């Protein structure tokens, strides 16, 4: 019998790779039963800190059919951002690799839009929505369900072939497709490098991160002053943090991305410790134009840099 859904799934995967995505997997749109109690407990423990938006749309986070009418499939996509480029001044306040280039939200949204258009042109009219990190979708759960990788002890999704330096995004569509097998095996074994390396002890147990202690949260999400208890524990990070990924053995398989939009711009990596310590609003606007760093605004980045002194 002719299998239409298998043909469509392959078409979508081939186009996703052509658009520059690193991986593409597909899962059935259904209620995330195992994630529900975990999410509830994480929120009850206040591990989301000031990220009050995490409390909103609890039901929608767990059921994609509440986000897209008649949703049948969740197409998960990964996009590599690994780079071997580094800041030239080793003493300079550090910035996470993912923020070297243009804001990933806009880069990925363009690709998702193109993929949705491709689906409509080659398969037919489809009801669907694109999601990048800013909507109530549990990216890692869907990526694991669609076979892209497993959730590591640092709660990042890890791929055997590519490590973990990649973004996740989804298309939720009302199209019946062929579903990939979930990634059931955990390949972290007895390794605890990420737990041992975290300077703020944010990884409180395997796969459980107290977001309110995470350096990424403290430098980006936290709007108030950084609590004094984290003084001298920030490892010189001014925006984001890569520590738990840098120490992960699976990231020896990371390969440099070839996404031109993620290439460092405006002399970002050449900024010295002095340049950053004395940064002005004008320099901030020039260097971080179109960058994810704009999320902190000038005052936020200045707060982070001053806290590191």
TrEMBL record:
<feature type="binding site">
    <location>
        <position position="194"/>
    </location>
    <ligand>
        <name>[4Fe-4S] cluster 1</name>
    </ligand>
</feature>
<feature type="binding site">
    <location>
        <position position="223"/>
    </location>
    <ligand>
        <name>tRNA</name>
    </ligand>
</feature>
<feature type="active site" description="Proton donor">
    <location>
        <position position="133"/>
    </location>
</feature>
<keyword id="KW-0819">tRNA processing</keyword>
<feature type="binding site">
    <location>
        <position position="61"/>
    </location>
    <ligand>
        <name>cob(II)alamin</name>
    </ligand>
</feature>
<protein>
    <recommendedName>
        <fullName>Epoxyqueuosine reductase</fullName>
        <ecNumber>1.17.99.6</ecNumber>
    </recommendedName>
</protein>
<keyword id="KW-0408">Iron</keyword>
<keyword id="KW-0560">Oxidoreductase</keyword>
<dbReference type="InterPro" id="IPR013542">
    <property type="entry name" value="QueG_DUF1730"/>
</dbReference>
<keyword id="KW-0846">Cobalamin</keyword>
<comment type="similarity">
    <text>Belongs to the QueG family.</text>
</comment>
<feature type="binding site">
    <location>
        <position position="244"/>
    </location>
    <ligand>
        <name>[4Fe-4S] cluster 2</name>
    </ligand>
</feature>
<keyword id="KW-0963">Cytoplasm</keyword>
<keyword id="KW-0004">4Fe-4S</keyword>
<feature type="domain" description="4Fe-4S ferredoxin-type">
    <location>
        <begin position="179"/>
        <end position="208"/>
    </location>
</feature>
<keyword id="KW-0671">Queuosine biosynthesis</keyword>
<dbReference type="InterPro" id="IPR004453">
    <property type="entry name" value="QueG"/>
</dbReference>
<feature type="binding site">
    <location>
        <position position="154"/>
    </location>
    <ligand>
        <name>cob(II)alamin</name>
    </ligand>
</feature>
<comment type="pathway">
    <text>tRNA modification; tRNA-queuosine biosynthesis.</text>
</comment>
<dbReference type="Pfam" id="PF08331">
    <property type="entry name" value="QueG_DUF1730"/>
</dbReference>
<feature type="binding site">
    <location>
        <begin position="241"/>
        <end position="242"/>
    </location>
    <ligand>
        <name>cob(II)alamin</name>
    </ligand>
</feature>
<dbReference type="Pfam" id="PF13484">
    <property type="entry name" value="Fer4_16"/>
</dbReference>
<feature type="binding site">
    <location>
        <position position="216"/>
    </location>
    <ligand>
        <name>cob(II)alamin</name>
    </ligand>
</feature>
<dbReference type="GO" id="GO:0052693">
    <property type="term" value="F:epoxyqueuosine reductase activity"/>
</dbReference>
<feature type="binding site">
    <location>
        <position position="188"/>
    </location>
    <ligand>
        <name>[4Fe-4S] cluster 1</name>
    </ligand>
</feature>
<feature type="binding site">
    <location>
        <position position="191"/>
    </location>
    <ligand>
        <name>[4Fe-4S] cluster 1</name>
    </ligand>
</feature>
<dbReference type="InterPro" id="IPR017900">
    <property type="entry name" value="4Fe4S_Fe_S_CS"/>
</dbReference>
<feature type="binding site">
    <location>
        <position position="241"/>
    </location>
    <ligand>
        <name>[4Fe-4S] cluster 2</name>
    </ligand>
</feature>
<feature type="binding site">
    <location>
        <position position="133"/>
    </location>
    <ligand>
        <name>cob(II)alamin</name>
    </ligand>
</feature>
<feature type="binding site">
    <location>
        <position position="198"/>
    </location>
    <ligand>
        <name>[4Fe-4S] cluster 2</name>
    </ligand>
</feature>
<dbReference type="InterPro" id="IPR017896">
    <property type="entry name" value="4Fe4S_Fe-S-bd"/>
</dbReference>
<keyword id="KW-0411">Iron-sulfur</keyword>
<feature type="binding site">
    <location>
        <position position="157"/>
    </location>
    <ligand>
        <name>cob(II)alamin</name>
    </ligand>
</feature>
<comment type="function">
    <text>Catalyzes the conversion of epoxyqueuosine (oQ) to queuosine (Q), which is a hypermodified base found in the wobble positions of tRNA(Asp), tRNA(Asn), tRNA(His) and tRNA(Tyr).</text>
</comment>
<feature type="binding site">
    <location>
        <position position="248"/>
    </location>
    <ligand>
        <name>[4Fe-4S] cluster 1</name>
    </ligand>
</feature>
<keyword id="KW-0170">Cobalt</keyword>
<keyword id="KW-0479">Metal-binding</keyword>
<comment type="subunit">
    <text>Monomer.</text>
</comment>
<feature type="binding site">
    <location>
        <position position="168"/>
    </location>
    <ligand>
        <name>cob(II)alamin</name>
    </ligand>
</feature>
<feature type="binding site">
    <location>
        <position position="214"/>
    </location>
    <ligand>
        <name>[4Fe-4S] cluster 2</name>
    </ligand>
</feature>
């Amino acid at each position: 019998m002719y299998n239409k859904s298998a043909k469509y799934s392959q078409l979508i995967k081939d186009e996703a790779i052509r658009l520059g995505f690193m991986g593409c997997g597909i899962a059935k749109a259904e209620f995330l039963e195992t994630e529900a109690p975990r999410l509830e407990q994480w929120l009850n423990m206040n591990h989301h800190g000031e990220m009050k938006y995490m409390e909103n749309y609890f039901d929608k986070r767990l059921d994609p059919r509440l986000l897209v009418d008649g949703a049948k499939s969740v197409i998960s996509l990964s996009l590599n951002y690994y780079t071997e480029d580094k800041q030239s001044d080793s003493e300079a306040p550090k910035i996470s690799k993912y923020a070297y280039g243009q804001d990933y939200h806009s880069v990925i949204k363009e690709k998702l839009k193109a993929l949705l258009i491709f689906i409509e042109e080659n398969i037919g009219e489809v009801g669907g929505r694109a999601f990048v990190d800013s909507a109530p979708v549990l990216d890692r759960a869907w990526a694991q369900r669609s076979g892209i990788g497993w959730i590591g002890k640092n709660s990042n999704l890890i791929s055997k072939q590519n490590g973990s330096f990649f973004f996740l995004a989804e298309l939720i569509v009302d199209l019946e497709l062929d579903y990939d097998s979930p990634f059931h095996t955990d390949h972290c074994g007895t390794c605890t490098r990420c737990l041992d390396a975290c300077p703020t002890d944010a990884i409180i147990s395997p796969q459980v991160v107290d977001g309110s202690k995470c350096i990424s949260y403290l430098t980006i999400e936290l709007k108030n002053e950084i609590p004094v208890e984290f003084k001298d524990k920030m490892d010189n990070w001014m925006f984001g943090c890569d520590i738990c990924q840098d120490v992960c053995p699976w990231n020896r398989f990371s390969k440099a991305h070839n996404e031109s939009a993620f290439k460092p711009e405006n002399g970002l990596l050449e900024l010295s410790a002095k340049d950053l310590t004395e940064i002005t609003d004008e320099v901030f606007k020039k260097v971080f134009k179109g960058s994810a760093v704009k999320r902190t605004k000038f005052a936020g980045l200045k707060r982070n840099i001053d806290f590191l002194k």
